[in-house]
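Predict the 3D structure for this chain.
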Amino acid sequence: MSGSPPLKYRRILLKLSGEALMGQRSFGLDPDVVVGLSREIVDLVGLGVELALVIGGGNIFRGLDADKTGMDRVTGDHMGMLATLINSLALQDALEQQGVHTRVLSALEIRAVAEPFIRRRALRHIEKGRVVIFAAGTGNPYFTTDSAAALRAMELKAEVLLKATKVDGIYTADPVHDPSAELLKRVGYLEVLERGLKVMDTTAISLCMDNKLPIVVFDIRTSGNIRRLVLGEDVGSIVSE
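Done. Predicted structure below.
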């Protein structure tokens, strides 16, 4: 875009957890958090960034938790997929209230509220400058929204997968519970797998490794971090070859 600063990443896939939309609440959506996040996305669109999102549903329902209660895992995962759709619609509404054109594409067909996921259609939306929000994960049980994010990033030919978290990067252990945990600014895919670092699930990491897609893990709670990342500032930790 004319007059905009040079971008390190022009097409990105942003992975948000459902918990990121929860703020300080114990359940559901915090409207202030959703609006704040939408403003950051509006800023990216203004820079000329081509943006797609995958949002989790853990703030509403998590399939793995249902499995622990004796519920059928497949049923629980499908309920979790529907939770991601609720989050996607909430973010879509916040974005469109600020004048950004969006499309929600769902891996589960729910045509009354979202378009079905079709790769060529998603690419067309991206090329037209629309923000694309992918809902319902991959549409398959036993696959997390992390795996969905890696898959969609590959399908869209994204330059980077941005993993939004509540910490400022990748640590050797949980920094909340282990004060001796060390921040790793750069780490290889194999090291993540071998050391069991809590970045994304193994399916997602393996998919990114096979296709040489870098993953940047950063703190979503610090305002402006996404903008800094796409402009090339050293924010968070990167997983690459």
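DSSP finds eight helices and eleven strands in the chain.
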